[in-house]
Structures are given as structure tokens and as C-alpha cells.
Amino acid sequence: MQIINTCNKIKTLFPHGFDRTVWRKYAEKISKELPSKCENDAKSYDFNNAVLPVLEAALNTNKIDFVSKNFQIVVDTLNANLSKLFDEEPDINIILYLGLCNGAGWATTLDGKNTVLLGVEKIIELNWGDETNMRALILHEIGHLWHKLNGKLYIPDFTKRRKAIQQLYQEGVAMFCEHILCDDNDFYHQDKEGWLDWCYKNENEIKREYLRRLDKKESVQDFFGDWCSYNGHSDVGYFLGCRFVEHLMQTYSLKKIANMKYRTLNKEYKKFTEHIFLCNNLHYSLPEFIIEQVTLKNFIKYENIFYSNKEYYMITDGHPAAKQDCVDTIEHAKNYPSGMCYCLGFSKEQQPVAFLSLLEGYPESTTLYVGLFLIDKRFQKNSIGTKIMNAVIDDTFSSGYTSIKLSVQDNNVSGYPFWKKLGFKAVKRTSCDGFYNISMELKRDN
């Protein structure tokens, strides 16, 4: 890996302002390809009104020194981060240079070598010169290069829909890689003034609006770029892309995701939008919990919740819970259309707390069905179950459902009162082997 910092040359070559002829010679010394590469990329810009003012503002010694100092701090500790994603040090260049507003970060190729270009002028314009933003920027662009080295970064045969899927996919993989490299799944340098909370709270709307624009062949530019915004928030596409990759990670490895074809990505994005409830608003409503989908890959983390509910399984099945009961609950999703049935795990301070299985749009399209809700015995009788279900109820109705249904046995002396206290009403009793199975429903207030 080669690190090139040209800040001292910038200060020397442009003491009285920007000169394009001088810049071409400067850029050519970095790489013979660089001047034409930058100029071709900037052809659509209004140079005098959009580019030159940014360049002139950036040619300030104090600002350049600030960027240079923090760049050096980040790259000096880079190898420790890279080992979390790469098996060996990648053969790449990282160059801090003066561009033509070609972007704060640009993962590209120069002289046949994978390169991260960091534009001093855009970094200064965006106020990304501090250590935190600089680290995020570099790790994000390295994420793009990891994708290129381990898969297919570009989708061929562009149409408007393919371009929009590709952009979401590319930024999502890079953002996911950035999270791995900085060891923080909720780190977004855009998170200022409640940006991330807003994204989580409005995730359902964001993902569906993106799908609507895909279907209508409308521009998705609002979701990307500091100069654009969706509902007053810029760079929302980076959040959406990362959440999409997190959805894919429930089924695929990261390397398989990096090699996905357009058809699979298109199909998977539609599945992703069907999850209007999964882990979205609940993250916002229950911030003290880590909420994740439980699959056969991670169910071991939550299986003790089943074993701790011995009385429940003695009542319903006549024997204590076994591993197969947990597996069967998760695999029950196979009996329904993709995305309709799933299980959620709730944990707190690395301790599994609750398990919840849900069916969306069952038995009617306007209904959410609660299949199973278990609280680990260690956390029972302290209102955690009530708190979780109240959040589920609120978010279900705010997502457009008009009712929530479930069934409980009348000999479940703790279960039936719990649901009744939450407002569920018995709507049907069915005799079943010496007990009654009670169908219960909670309707949304109109």
C-alpha cells in the first residue's frame, strides 16, 4: 500500500490562487492519467461558477495543513483496521490531492493500480478534514476497492433502474465494509442533528419511496450527494444501502453479496421492501435493545429463552422445550411467502431477553399475527414484555395494519392475562384436548 500526500506541493504551486496550467503539470506528476481523468469527469460542471470558487477557498494554508495532519494520523494507523476485512495488506494507492471537485473520495484506477483519490478541495468545502470524518472517508473508499477486488463492482447494460440499483448496492457494500473496519455498526459520519434517528424512524418510507422511483423510472439523485436531499436529509441512500446489505447478510456471505448479479439484487430489494416492520421502527422505539432477525445461523444466541420457559412448554407441548422446538419455530417461515413470517431476537447488554415470531399480512393483508412471544425467565415480572409489546403494537398500527391477532390456551395462566391487560379481546374459543384455544384480537382505534 502506497500513501501519497501532496499537500506541501499544493501550497508551493498555488500561492496566489488556482492556475489550470500549473494544476495540469502538478496532476501529471502524480499520474499521467490524472489530468484527463479529472477533466473528463468535470466536463458537466460549470467550472467558473461551481468549481473555481471551491478551489480558491481551499487554497488556504491553515485549512490544507489541518487536512494534511489528520490524513497522516489516519493512514498511520490504517493497517490495524484493514486486517478486519482483508486477509493481507491490499496493493492500493491512497492519494491526497487537489482535484477539480471530482469528489471528496474517489475509488478508481490509476496506471493500472487500484487507487483512492482524496480531493482536498471537496474535503475542505464539506468540513470533513477532522480525524473522524477523514477516517470515515478513507475507510468508505477502501470498502469500494474491497468490493472491486472481491466481486463485481459494476452492473453492465445500464438502464435507469440498473443504475439506481447499482448505486444503492455499491454504497451499501462500501458502508457495510466501513462499519467492519471501524468496528461500529451504527457509525455514519453524516449523523449530525439526529440524522440517524430520523433515518431509522423513517426507514419504511425511505425504502418504499426508493422502490417507487425504481418502478416509475424516476431519478434517485435526492438520496445521494451532499448537494441533494430527501425530505431535508442528505445522503439517505448510504443508510438505505447499508440496511439493504444487512438484510442480504441474513442469507448470504459478504463475498457472495459482492458478486451478486442484477436480477438477484432486484429481487432481493423487493423482498427488503416487504419487511416494512422488521427491526425498523422498533430500533427507534426500543433504543435500549439490540433487535435482530433470528435465523438458523444465530438462533443459538436465543435458544436458552426457550429452555427457561419450561412451564409454557409443559402446558402447550407436555414436555420442556428442546432445541428442535426453537428450530421448528424458525423454520415455520418456510410455510409462507418470502418475507411474511420471521422471528426477532431482543438482547440487552449482550444478554438475550426476548424472542418474538410474527406473520405480516396474515390471515388478512391488514393483520399482523403474533405467533410466539417469550421472555427469558431472568427478565420476567419486570414489565419488559409489556414494554416490548406496547412498542410492537404502536409500530404495527403506525405501519398501516388495522389489527393484531394471536391465540393462547386458557390454561396458560400467565399468558392469557398478559394479552388481556394489553387490550386484546377474546373473539373465539375452540375446544382442544381438555382446554380451550382462545383467539384474541386488538384493533386499531380509528
Main CATH class of the largest domain: Alpha Beta
CATH architectural type of the largest domain: 3-Layer(aba) Sandwich
Which structural category fits the helices and strands? alpha/beta
Radius of gyration: 26 Å
CATH topology of the largest domain: Aminopeptidase
Main pleated-sheet profile: 7 strands, mixed
Helix fraction by DSSP (H/I, runs of at least 4): 40-55%
Number of structural domains: 3
Q: Mean pLDDT, as a whole number? A: 90
Low-confidence stretches: none
Distance between the termini: 62 Å
How many beta-strand segments? 11
Strand content: 15-25%
Assembly type: single chain
Largest sheet: spatial strand order: 5-6-7-8-9-11-10
CATH H-level name of the largest domain... which superfamily? Gcn5-related N-acetyltransferase (GNAT)
Question: Count of helical segments?
Answer: 20
The best one-word shape is elongated
Supply the key terms.
seven-stranded mixed beta sheet, 11 strands, 17% strand, 446 residues, Aminopeptidase, alpha/beta
Secondary structure: elements and pairs:
Elements: E1 2-5, H1 7-13, H2 20-30, H3 34-41, H4 47-58, H5 61-76, H6 78-82, E2 93-97, E3 105-110, E4 113-119, H7 120-125, H8 131-150, H9 160-182, H10 195-201, H11 203-216, H12 236-248, H13 254-258, H14 262-274, H15 281-285, E5 290-293, H16 303-308, H17 310-316, H18 323-331, E6 341-348, E7 351-360, E8 367-375, H19 384-398, E9 403-409, H20 415-421, E10 425-432, E11 435-443
Parallel strand pairs: 1-2, 2-4, 8-9
Antiparallel strand pairs: 3-4, 5-6, 6-7, 7-8, 9-11, 10-11
